[in-house]
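TL;DR need structure tokens for one chain.
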Amino acid sequence: MLLRLLLVGYLYGITSERRLLEEVRMHLAYRWFTRLGFEQEIPDHSTFSKNRHGRFRQSDVFREVFEEIVRRCLEAGLVEGQNLAVDGTLVEANASRESRVPRKQLKEAAQISRTVREYLAELEQRNPVSDAKKVSTTDPDAILTTKGSGTARMAYYDNYLIDTASRVIVGVEATPALSRQEMVAARKMLERVEKLGVRPESLGADKAYGSGEFLAWLLARGVQPHIPVIDRRHQRGGHFTRDQFRYEPQENTYYCPEGKPLRYSRLKRRGQGYIYSSTVVQCRGCRQKQHCTAAPFRNLVVHWYEPAREVVRGLAGTSACVHSQRARRKIEAMFSELKYRIGLHRVRLRRPWNVSEPFLLAATAQNLKRLVRFLAQRQAFNPSTA
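>> reply
TL;DR here they are.
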């Protein structure tokens, strides 16, 4: 009954639980949907809070409901599952930037805040997601961030994975509002959707997902990444770029435009690359040195996942990639519906497991609308399927 009550709110954009219960009290159709008879009392709004600290958090019931609706979409033939798209949108957290304190003051704040005590206990068991110098005592997982030129605010990312043909959301993940968390969320959603029987052929996304590691992970799973590669090959300030160096795989050596070798030197772990270097003697007196480097010798950094990046660059001009990049924009319409139809501009709940609740329920409501419309159209076209 509580699930049905919450779902009514997301289907009709009623974000306040107090107002929702008043609407259910007066609305016959809402009572019918939630299976509340006229003689039954409407639950108090505090019932939701009590269940969030217990059964809701322990059972992961909201994800179960979301995945069940995705299964129904698959069974009905609404979802093709061949071409998917992924992206995340900022949703304001229930915390203010004034609630942040320096990280070293968290233990002091924990003496009066149960939220901070729980957060510190979690940090003893895992590495923190954020290394921010200041942490909110209201919601420690919310991140002060901005997207574009807007005002910085405390927020989470609501990550969606959608089937571009039907615009059905097949994956949802709540993460702190850090750009690197978008790829973490994408991996989790793709792994979950595979368990539902979806085997995508391609994934469309913007350049934020174009890291070599993520692209290699997709290719290893048989998914074509229709994603712009994060590429700094051409940023050399007027000097020779890596494309102008010739690679000899048998020698594992690069040759500069003057034919001088740059041999493997060392790993660059922080930048995830291999460094190839010439020598001072080779570069001394070279007629092209001013076009190559201002240092005594030239270093060439080659990404660990360069083979995967080359494959993805080769996909960039294909008709499939162009279509996928165009289709991925549909996800923006899903976010617009989330914020302006459902009204989820800002979450009322705190901590990731609670923030997941509105994200999953909103996506469930969006999918239900599409499923009902699809079934109604199919029935109108072919009444024998009724």
